[in-house]
Amino acid sequence: MSDPGFSNSSERLHEIAERVLSLAHQRGASACEAAVSEGFGQTVSVRKNEIETIEYNRDKGVGVTIYLGTCLGHASTSDFSDAALISTVEAALSIARFTAPDVAAGLPEKELLARDWADPQLHYPWDLTVESAIELARTCEQAAFDVSPQITNSDGASVSTQQAQFVLANSLGFIGGYPSSRHSMSCSVIAGEGDAMQREYWYDSRRNASALDHAESIGRRAGERTIRRLGARKIATCEVPVLFEAPVAMTLLGNFTHAVSGGALYRNSSFLLDALGKQIFSPLVNILERPHEPGTFGAAPFDGEGVATQARDIVSDGVLNGYFLSSYSARKLGMQTTGNAGGSHLLTMAASGDEDFDALVRRMGRGLVVTELLGQGVNYVTGDYSRGVAGYWVEGGEIVYPVQEVTIAGNLRDMFMGISAVGNDALPRSAKRCGSILIDRMTVAGS
User: Fold this and answer.
1) What is the DSSP letter of 195?
2) Distance (Å, rounded) from C-alpha 73 to C-alpha 92?
3) Rounded (to 5) percent helix, strand, coil in the chain
4) According to the CATH classification, is domain 10-228 in 3.30.2290.10?
5) Each residue of 105-134: pLDDT tens digit?
6) Per-residue confidence band for 244, with pLDDT thresholds at 50, 70 and 90
7) Largest alpha-carbon pair distance within the chain?
8) Cα(first)–Cα(last) distance of the chain, in Å?
9) What are the residues whose beta carbons fall under 8 Å from the beta carbon of 124, sequence distance 6 or more?
10) What's the CA gap between 246 and 388, in Å, rounded?
11) Where are the domains positioned within the chain?
């Protein structure tokens, strides 16, 4: 049975998906895919101990993809009535009739579809009343204010709980789905006065609310990080080692994922074209995709097309072993899908040793710690990288003062090859996990 919070049972979602497939077949579709989903949740935020917002969300939808040979049409509706399903199928068919053929279009190969899978254990309902959420948010924010009287203002604290379920089905006989949850808590505060004000934040997010950091811990960490930013200054332009703190180091993992994803590759818009089997990272880098780790963000027994997922070592000792491909992008490249329609699954850059953040600061000796990235400055065609940053300057293996209004620049090829350490301080709050990353040299543009 589905959680009582859902408006529809899992069985009802299955019935809707099967009805869509039947309607498409009756109307002459050569193939069809249906995705039926439902979600709901609540978010509460407070600011300076006052209730700022109480938000409820509830949505549902049916997406229909129909093929007439290699011509594709897609339509969707938020109405689960039979009349709406008929209308949506006919709309998708009409679109397909006017779409140009695309030989790469179509459902995945039948033999690649998932047939049997274990429960991914992604659904952990949180019986949280609005009153309890407000109290948690207030506790979180107050813990930040308690850090120091220099914390003078707040952007607020929020508590969110979300649940969803879906069913995916296609005319090759695949049908499957499962419920999931995501719960989070965050806090952002402001310290200082006038032109010397600084803002920082902290948050945690988990499938299971019982694994969330305590509200006091999240608030205190937000407050401590804000106070450490006071007195930030510019630094002179230089070339030094750069240490990406774990929360921002994950963006480098995201840059890599984008560059070796099918869409970027078949469009020839990646600096890692034809990199399969080649050394693209420092030899100490290993990147693992583990979609079957239960209870985690990124866990999935099948991808967005129903293709079975597999554990893969994407990068071994710096060598690229695989791409992230859907059926469509794989056909465009003359390859086979990797079960990544919809993106990568649980992706981890393994620690290169037993060093935590403090140990990496000591190892760096002198250089820049990056704790915040500003703006967009990544050219995926060339790999050129330039981002505004904030963080800390390090001398003698110790943080000596905060830094702001500087830019770091380099090329992702050189940055990946220049990774000299990956910390063991990865955070489990997203589908990409990566500890702090130390890069041996980058250009830091300051005053």
Assistant:
1) G
2) 5
3) 25, 40, 35
4) yes
5) 999 999 999 999 999 999 999 999 999 999
6) very high
7) 74
8) 62
9) 181, 183, 207, 208, 209, 210, 295
10) 17
11) 10-228, 238-251+351-445
